[in-house]
Design brief:
Length: 162
């Protein structure tokens, strides 16, 4: 029994890593080996687009390099999240979609969306009746901030109830 348990632990250590793997059919590649070059290419492209858009004053390539450098880790992280196989991460809880935290989040998201639809409908009616002109950026920013606040409060309430 002890040998079998030790074997499963050693097998688990070999198949899981801190940074995970990407599966290509039966092949496995370290996730960072995919995320790092892809993230660098995306960051460089973002830098060029930012420089071409004239976001900052200065020489084109200096602006492109600056924006590419400051966005590199964000793009690498986003690619890593998109490609990593969650089962290859060491320390990951099994079946996280069945966890109590997942249930709390689902309930909070469902109720938050219902609140969003109700409040948006009431706000639309109020704006239509009063004939008020409001900036779309202001309205959409308010919708996002209020929705995130509502979701956060509902999640914390669900967590408190257990």
């Amino acid at each position: 029994m002890r040998q079998q348990r030790e074997h499963s632990i050693s097998t688990d250590r070999r198949t899981t890593t801190r940074t995970g793997h990407v599966r290509f059919g039966s092949r496995r590649t370290p996730a960072l080996a995919v995320a790092l070059p892809t993230g660098l290419v995306l960051a460089a492209g973002f830098g060029v687009v930012a420089a071409a858009a004239g976001i900052a004053n200065g020489p084109f390539w200096a602006v492109a390099a600056f924006f590419g450098l400051i966005s590199t880790w964000a793009f690498v992280a986003l690619v890593w999240i998109a490609v990593v196989d969650p089962d290859s991460l060491r320390g990951r809880a099994p079946r996280t979609e069945e966890s109590v935290e997942s249930a709390w989040f689902e309930k909070a998201a469902s109720a938050s969306f219902t609140d969003l639809v109700i409040v948006s409908g009431l706000a639309l009616a109020a704006v239509a009746v009063t004939d008020v002109e409001i900036s779309a950026i202001l309205v959409l920013t308010g919708v996002v901030v209020i929705s995130l606040a509502d979701l956060s409060v509902r999640y914390l309430l669900n967590r408190g109830r257990g």
